[in-house]
Amino acid sequence: MILIKNSIVFLAILCTSLLYGQKKTLNTKSITTKISIDGRITEDAWNSAEIASDFVMYQPDNGKAINENKKTEVKVVYDNDAVYIAAILYDEDPNKIKKEITNRDSFGVTDYFSIFINGFNDGQQDFRFYVTAAGVQLDCIATEDYNDFSWDAIWDSKTVITDKGWVVEMKIPYAAIRFPNSNKQTWGINFLRNIERDVQVYSWNRIDTKIGAELTQNGLLEGIENIKTPTRLFFIPYASFYNQKDENQSDNTFKGGLDIKYGINDAFTLDAILVPDFGQTKFDNAILNLEPFEQKLDENRPFFTEGTELFSKGNLFYSRRIGGYPSSDPTVAENEEITDYPSTVDLLNAIKISGRTKKGLGIGFLNAITEKTFATIKDTISSTSRKEVIEPLANYNIVVLDQRFNQNSSVTFINTNTIRNGSFRDANVSGLLFDLNTKKNNYSLNGDFKYSTVNTFEDYDGYKTALNFEKTSGKIRYEVSGKYISEDYDVNDLGLIYYTNYHGGYANASYRILNPTSVFNTFKILQEASLEIQNTTGKIQDDYLKTTITASSLKNNYYEFSLLYTPKETFDFYEPRDYGRYVYVPKKVISLLAFELNRNHAFTVDIASSFAKYDEEDRLNYGVFINPKYRFNNQFSLEYALDYTAKRSDRGRVGYDDSGIVFAERNREILQNTLVGKFAITNRMALNLDVRYYWSYADNHEFFTLQDDGYLTPNPNYNLNKNRNFNSWNFDLSYSWWFALGSEMILLYRNYALEETNQVEKDLSTNLSDIFNSNLTNIFSISVRYYIDYNVVKNKF
User: Fold this and answer.
1) pTM for the whole thing?
2) Are residues 34 and 146 in the same domain?
3) Quick check: helix, strand or coil at residue 17?
4) If 64 and its partner were Cys, which of 57, 237, 259, 580 is the partner (CB 3.0–4.6 Å)?
5) C-alpha 516: how far from chain center
């Protein structure tokens, strides 16, 4: 009897394992009748559609079947224009469904349903479409490494709350996705359901968290055949008006332009911007930058954020280079001064073409042209002025070839090229990348080789190579990697790199729980080790051991602790800002402790504290981050963040005198306050507030001279004032309205100022008073973008 029972249990386990291990298949059918996207699912076409059901938990208790009172049923049909999705999401208590109204591409505290589509079924890139219970749309292009929510497609959806749960109806035009040119289609597909109050996520085809690769675990959609897709041609004209004024001047500006999207075929798309306008993009977070490197800025321009995953291969593309800071400084005589130096270069136009062939070859092409830019120089004796080119007419170009194979592997070639007209700097970078994974996605081998060429008055070439091996599945995982970067490797004309001329190794090992225990929902411990050695001197430039523990409790509170230790002294080859020089950096210990309260509460808070102690007298850093949020109701929320850092007896380069390079010992404080507010009038209309005040100072109290061996000796004779006091203020209040599919109107009031002196003021109220008494710039703007589908216009006329 016992033997029979054990056999039955074993058989059940075996059947369950086989069920979970194979891909589910959903068959769809063609329809000829029209479907109205109203969330009611009343059309006859839905009655005979096959049902996708039997969802299983993705997180936290991976593999657990969904409860019967939360069962989920999904149907898919199609015609020549689009695929249509209907989802019935049962809930025994519909009044408890979370449904915060957010801005587009923001989850908030809400239930949601999503569909993952991989038209090539190659296990490497999904088009993902989400609809929240409040009717808010989110969409992204997903790879194993990154979900790009800056990508926005044009699609339709509607949700309805019922007495049995809620219903989603979606229409996803073929223009929003990519698939091969074949009479018979087989797509990778999966459905996801998030039940926010339980903090549980379910999927149709099981996503096994023991396997590191998520995208390979989609199910299959079959039945799409002989579709005749319409012409994919879309025009997005825009018009905008700006009124800008400060204490000295006021002006009005009208702008107009056009974006074009054209589907070359079902797999390839051309995007073009003519006369671009980025006046309403989010402001850059200005900081007091005392580092030897430029500040890396976020990209907020839609053309350079949407659908650029191919161009991001190999990290050779930093899009802020296009239309960014001029590449040269003017030649100025002793009796001249610069009276006008533009901080950015105007973008004239840009195009990008991207897609993938039936055999998995991804092809990307991006080209942008920026305008010739001048600085104005004034002769202080004659009072005459002249102009000098600081950035010529420039062309930026990227070509990418990315071959995917075996559902989880790829080989990529990428080339970036910058050509500036005249006797200015040109550059070219090529990279060969590979990412190879075993059939079961247990192990990964990836690496690259990149070669750069820079043409200036002194030409130089360089290269970088890396190899990485990783175990990517199971409770215990590990990674080992090595890299070499030559001295003259330089990708900074169209990319961004800080450190060169070194070689190094890195390793880590981690342990995680894959299902909840009696204490934790999730738990992970990660141990890392890194070593970097400068090529020319053989000195260590970076060396650390780091332990990180992350966990979430059964009440879904999040905890994190990390401890980093540098066991040996290192040398900084960049802070001296002089070729061949370096400065000693003492050993240090850095710790971080963070906590996040369950986001389902109306009031939630993130708290983090950090502490760093150097093996040097009185030298330490400490900081605190506090981020409380309160959700008043499903429409209105406020979020405040305080980020404070103090650096005591910090050391950095400040100048040069007869003794050589001068360093200062200084005390620094950095304070950033941000306030974000949202009032959603509807799921397509909202008021948004974004306020930032930043203050930082550097107070130098002792000076040193850098010696040839990298150590500092006192320099009591240096008496120049190198102190810094920096204030930055930004205020954005906007009203946005998606008045039609793909069409948006934005009203924006912007107020900003920046003040910088060498007189340190440590009183916060005085700094606030100074920034508000400075020359504040006020901008009011209105912008309207309208989406025009060529097929709709053609049918009307």
Assistant:
1) 0.89
2) yes
3) helix
4) 57
5) 30
